[in-house]
Amino acid sequence: MHEEAATSLQSQQIDRPTSARAPDGKTGKTLFIQTYGCQMNVYDSERMADVLRPLGYSPVDKPDNANLVVLNTCHIREKATEKVYSEIGRLKAHKDLMAQNGAKMTIAIAGCVAQAEGEEIMRRAPAVDLVVGPQAYHKLPELIARAARASGERLETSFEADEKFDALPTLRAPDGPSAFLSVQEGCDKFCTFCVVPYTRGAEYSRPVDPIILEARGLAQQGVREITLLGQNVNAYHGQGPTLSGSETWSLAQLVRHLAKIGGIERIRYTTSHPCDMSDDLIEAHGEVKELMPYLHLPVQSGSNKILKAMNRKHSVESYLDTIAKVRQARPDIALASDFIVGFPGETEQDFEDTMELVRAVGYAGAYSFKYSKRPGTPASEMYGQVASEVADDRLQRLQALILEQQRAFNAAKIGETFDVLFTGKGRNEGQILGRSPWLQSVHVAGPEHLIGQIQSVRIIGTMPNSLTGELVTAS
Fold first, then answer.
1. 433 and 452 share one domain
2. Cys-Cys with 115: which of 21, 104, 133, 153 at CB 3.0–4.6 Å?
3. 2 domain-assigned
4. For 322-356, how does the pLDDT look when each residue is reduced to its tens digit (9 = 90+)?
């Protein structure tokens, strides 16, 4: 999401391999996908694996000898971009070694860096075979075939969100009981620090019917929890069916409909914008039991002056009013946010206003990071760029306050009993890992056959970023 930050007190930036599963596992073609950035990129990587599966690509855990390596990139921060170029350099060595042994490695760059810097990548990194923007990865099979024939374009970064979703296979291969489901892409807000409107394009909402079809397919494969994704997900306005034709559905309507699908017991959504937190969505938090009591609502700053400079289109007062409405509808809701410190023009008083907002709200966690210039964005040319050491100091103070609140929120759960969705094995032998309604990791001693199930757990302790509990009932 465009609101996602690289430094998080609640969860680390996603940077992990995603592999496609071949139908029979016997193919000689191998695939490695490295994912950087937000949940939307994780979803995109899963869908890339889906479109490549029919071509017979099987998974590998390392890129060293993969026939196809895809780097699905994030363009939020400059260091993330340079990390991609550094990884390309390492891959080139593997590619050259494979070539000496008569094998071939195809390197593809996907995601937002591909969209923003496609031509520069092709110029700067000749080892790259394909560049695929976030709206064109459904064309990967075609582009791979063209590259194999040494013909056709190597660069594909067009904005065709509707075409992309139409071209993706309906059947997915979810990895566990929790899955992402993309419902919206792009953003029309044009925050002055953000590249998303340029790399992901204008807002596009998928129609209701294919979303429901995809959700039903996930449920049939054992998915119990879906997270609806969008760069500005609560601005969702997709076309949905009615008795008299079609109408535009809000995210709240979509959530209520998805909650009726058998097997789907938990629904989440991310990332939201305060200006699109509509009354019907707030009401859904209080009325739809499947909608989890967790809301990630980025504010970015507690200073109205800075919010105006960011072109955020909301004020501190309107944000706090929204928070109050949400808490009235769902008193036990956990709140998370995003913060940028050191934005151009930020004074010590502006920063203190942010600290005061954090104290007033009380967060269960937050993403926080130091402002980083993104070429081509208005903020990169603004007067009053804040010195790096000043921004570093402010970031440390903000993170210390948020960490204090996060630990207090977790500690308050000790002694409580609630349902946990178990998603996988824990780090220790005989341990399974689950997720609380408030998105906390929960470690429990229990049998592996409970993975994929929702069980009642009593919380007995906390760790820095998670909870420990014991099973109350088990089937």
1. yes
2. 133
3. no
4. 999 999 999 999 999 999 999 999 999 999 999 99
